[in-house]
Amino acid sequence: MKRILILLLAGLIAVLLQATVFTWLPLGRFKPDLLLIVVLYVGFFLPPTEGGVLSFLLGYLADLFSGTPMGLFTFTHVVAWFVAKLASGVLHVKSTPAQTIFVGIYSGIDALVLVGALRLFGGPDYRAPELGTGVLWQALLNALAAPFVITALARAERRFESGLPRKRLDFMS
Amino acid sequence: MFQLLGRYRVFLTAAVLLGAASLLLSSSLQKRTRFSFVDKLVFDLTVPIQKMVAIPAQSVRGAWNQYVALVHVRRENRDLRQKLTALGEENRQFREALLSSERYERVRQMRDRLPQPMLPATLIGTDSSSWFRTVFIDKGENAGVRKGMAVVSPEGIVGHVLAVSHHAAKVLLITDRSSAVDVTVERSRARGIVEGTRGDDCQLKYVVRGEDVKPGDRLVSSGMGGIFPKGLPVGRVARVERGNRGLFQRAEVEPSVEFNRLEEVFVILEESPLQKLLQEPGQPLG
């Protein structure tokens, strides 16, 4: 329970940073999606039920702070969690380069899931080619932010919850 | 049975949660955006934090823009350091005063033009994602803000209120893909729709091919969309595209408002006739 609260708080901080401070970064209209990284972390390290529910709540939080129809980010973040959960059984994302690559690649997939969900549910029409270089920028920013966010999350978890299995810390380089 | 459920726990959890998310998404698309009690509560709880971050950050940014550029010049011109700093400071004060007076003048002109009551509001945050264009303002239901109200600045139309909580509101900018504003070309009175694009600009669509539209033309709201009052600046035509085929021509539009520098806006508190009509309960015919 404590773990879930820590990660929920981390998600809230991430979304608030994205909605305020990141606006003033000289990165044009793009900003790192810290919340997506938190969801991927949850997919990798939390048990299925807790992780799934947490990704749902984090997605709901993203919907509140965005101009999307409510539920869009809830949907895409549950998909992100599911993909990360499946990937955690196959991949061993131990080093910083591996984390960077995984988050970068998934960010591209996330944009396609977003466009697909909008198409599927009849929301505003975003054409995939229009996302174009935007997706690459977003993926690059997320990938660069990933090692820092993952390290911070692992440290926060270790600090506030003693007795975590060592296995989970393998994610750290 | 339980063993089987345990084995496919990830898939079952994903299926249940994706189903719930799909229900939420399709119901919100059906009802359009409306905050529930829980949404309002969560949103309102974060307003003080957003304000706490936004206001000092805006001050720091202002200080950065005003001083750091001068420090850089000073380094390049060491001999004139003292004089330059003094002149720079004097210049900054004059410029600040000039900008303030220009801003007040623009606000006064806007108020003269619009008879509707207006509520000033400060921006406290922007969309948390990179794909959508919304901002958050520090006024909500308690200040009289309602869903669908127009949001303007002295430079022109900003957007409209998408969702509202007790102390804050979410505003959809005209640069968002899902935004559409009915406009008139000020010079030729040609009509069209301004929609958001993937970038920070807009595009003018559905202007009949034969209509007269040129780069540099000013676009103003036609008042026909049901949200924005007539005659408010929307943007300026940057480039016109007339294909060889089709009924309509298309143009790129530079919005009148510089959204990256937006700090204060005004909510037009009067609901449009269309909004009032939509809120009225249906009457049986005959």
What can you see in these coordinates?
The complex is a heterodimer of chains A (173) and B (286). The two termini of chain A are 26 Å apart. The model of chain A is unreliable at 166-173 (pLDDT under 50). Chain A is built from 6 helices and no strands. By secondary structure, chain A is mainly α. Chain A has helices at 2-19, 34-45, 48-64, 72-88, 96-121, 128-160. The radius of gyration of chain A is 15 Å and the shape is globular. Chain B has 286 residues and is α+β, with helices and mostly antiparallel strands. In chain B, 38% of the residues lie in helices and 27% in strands. Chain B has helices at 2-7, 9-31, 37-76, 81-113, 273-279; strands spanning 118-126, 134-137, 150-153, 156-164, 169-173, 180-185, 191-196, 202-208, 218-221, 233-241, 248-255, 264-268. A 6-stranded antiparallel β-barrel of chain B has the order 1-2-5-4-3-12. A 6-stranded antiparallel beta barrel of chain B has the order 6-7-8-11-10-9. In chain B, helix 3 packs antiparallel against helix 4. The radius of gyration of chain B is 24 Å and the shape is globular. The mean pLDDT of chain B is 81. Classes of the chains: A mainly alpha (173), B alpha+beta (286). Chains A and B meet through helix 1, helix 3, helix 4, helix 5 and helix 6 of A and helix 2, helix 3, strand 1 and strand 5 of B.
